[in-house]
Structure formats: structure tokens, C-alpha cells
Amino acid sequence: MKYVYASRTGNVQSIVSDLGLDALCIQSGDEVMEEPFILFTYTDGYGDIPMEVESFLMANGQNLKGVIVSGDTSYGEAYCQAGDKIADEYGVECLYKVENAGEAADIEAIQAILSNV
């Protein structure tokens, strides 16, 4: 399985790094992934999908197999909504929701999920 991520503040990049994953970083949205992948993303604004992630998925979404999303619980119901929206739009599972960069327990939980995907 391949991994792709978008990180604006460094939280998602930290998660990917803590997991030791070799992952493609989405910067412009023009990147290409021709193999099945898991997406790691952040939630923008008040529950929005980041623009570069939307662009990337428009061209590569057919290969999306699941999403792991970072958010901030201080946004209430908008917490990690980008993951829910992506999962609904592309018919995949939102595999995990993590607060900001997560903690050791989150990294362990994500590792367990990825080993079963």
C-alpha cells in the first residue's frame, strides 16, 4: 500500500514521520498516484477539505482506499470533518481521527489499522 499526505502546520507530517512511512507529500494537488493509497490529511477551516487535497483527489481519487484525518477538537462538530467528507465522496472508510499531531497511543492505533489494510 502507498501513502499520501497533506500537512499545513506540520501535524500530519509528524504523524507520517512517527509511523516511519515513505509517503508522497501533496503540495500543489497536481501530484500523481497511480497505485492504491491511504490518504493522511488535515481539516481546513471549519471542517473543510484542503484545496490541494481536493485537486489531488479529483485526479487520483479512483485509487483512494481510506483516509486518516487530523483535526482540532476545539472546533466541535467540525472536528476531522474533512475525513468524513472525503470518505463519503469516494466511498471509502475514514480509518482514524487524530487530535492535531496525536500521541503515542494514536500512532500505535494507526499502525495497527495500517497493518490490516
Automatic annotation (TrEMBL):
It comes from the Bacteria. Gene3D superfamilies: 3.40.50.360. This is NrdI protein. GO terms for molecular function: FMN binding. The lineage of its organism: Bacteria, Bacillati, Bacillota, Erysipelotrichia, Erysipelotrichales. It comes from Faecalicoccus pleomorphus. Pfam families: Flavodoxin_NdrI.
